[in-house]
Amino acid sequence: MGLFDRLSRVVRANLNDMVSKAEDPEKVLEQAVIDMQEDLVQLRQAVARAIAEQKRTEQRYNQDLGEANKWDQRARLALSKGDENLAREALMRKKSHMDTATVLKQQLEGQVAQVDSLRKNLVALESKISEAKTKKNMLQARARAAKANEELQKTLGNIDINSATGAFERMETKVLEMEARSQAFGELSGYGIEQQFAQLEAGSDVDDELAMLKAQMIEGSKPPEALPQASETKSSSASDSVVDAELEELRSKLKDV
């Protein structure tokens, strides 16, 4: 293979690749339908010309047939009058028109077949164009959907999902920490007030009980009064036992405090 052949092939390959990449399905389909419609217009014109030519051939054929019939009648007239030479001339004219009519008839038959074929092709092309328009609309819709999906995939591909997810996780952790600190501050603040009041209340109870114990101990340290009579002595002994028991209980309580 020569150098120029190889170079030509490389150039053609590159051009084909460039054209292939530059092809937009929507535009190509639109142009294809336009080209088909232009072909349809040309085919219609060709059919119209063929029909017109057929009409002219048919007219000429009918004219030649008419002339042939006319010269046939003249030949009969001349022969009836005894003029054979004139009858011969008339028959020669008749033959000429009949020969022309025969040729025109063959031509007319060919034209009729051609017109029929062109009409069939016209109907087929119209059907193909109608089908192509429907298919074009469908393919264009699919192409637009594919482009939209491609753009969406590119957009999704440019998004760093891991980074975005990590950012959300970090912010969620930070918000949880902020909520925990806020709750801790609130609990500490509330606990301080409650503790102070609890200490005051506890201190008041202890002081009251301590004062009561002091008063009881002071009463217990007073000197005993004169001994009463026997009955009074028994009553006093019972009272002393009760007092001693209570005093012992209070002492136990003081130890516990």
The main sheet comes to:
none
Quaternary state reads: single chain
Q: What is the residue-averaged pLDDT? A: 78
Low-confidence stretches: 230-234
Named CATH topology of the largest domain: Helix Hairpins
**Class from helix and strand fractions:** mainly alpha
Following the backbone from N to C, one meets helices and strands in this order, namely HHHHH
The coarse silhouette is rod-shaped
Beta-strand content bin? under 5%
Annotated CATH architecture of the largest domain: Orthogonal Bundle
CATH class of the largest domain: Mainly Alpha
Q: Portion of residues in helices?
A: over 70%
- Strand tally: 0
Number of helices: 5
Radius of gyration: 65 Å
Q: Please report the distance between the alpha carbons of the first and last residues.
A: 118 Å
In total, the number of domains comes to 2
Any key phrases for this structure?
2 domains; 257 residues; rod-shaped; Helix Hairpins; mainly alpha; 5 helices
